[in-house]
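Researcher: Quick test of sequence recovery. Tokens follow.
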């Protein structure tokens, strides 16, 4: 018996995803998608094994690391968890949880558009 290993699909996402694309991105984490939003440029990367990989993809495409915030989404329920280790790297922010309501709102709005929640 062989087990299928998780497959991660780290990518920049500019347009709303189809239901099949969302399922593909969620496959690596058993129904959850890690994603990072550049709150200044309103860009999103999703589908990597680690938030840092999403952040690095955004940085390679013109984002500044301090503008990139990590979260997780559970597409089946629409729940967003505003936590990631990369969030601790921000100046003046010493927790994985995003506590700034404006940043959370920006992440929620973009995630809603992209993931269809």
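Model:
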């Amino acid at each position: 018996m062989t087990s299928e290993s998780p497959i991660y699909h780290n990518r920049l996402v500019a347009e709303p995803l189809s239901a099949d694309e969302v399922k593909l991105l969620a496959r690596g984490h058993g129904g959850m998608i890690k994603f990072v939003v550049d709150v200044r440029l309103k860009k999103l990367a999703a589908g990597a094994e680690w938030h840092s990989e999403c952040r690095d993809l955004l940085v390679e495409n013109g984002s500044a690391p301090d503008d990139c915030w990590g979260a997780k989404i559970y597409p089946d329920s629409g729940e967003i968890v505003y936590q990631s280790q990369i969030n601790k790297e921000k100046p003046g922010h010493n927790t994985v949880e995003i506590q700034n309501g404006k940043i959370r709102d920006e992440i929620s709005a973009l995630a809603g558009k992209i993931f269809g929640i």
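Residues 36 and 107 are 9 Å apart (CA to CA).
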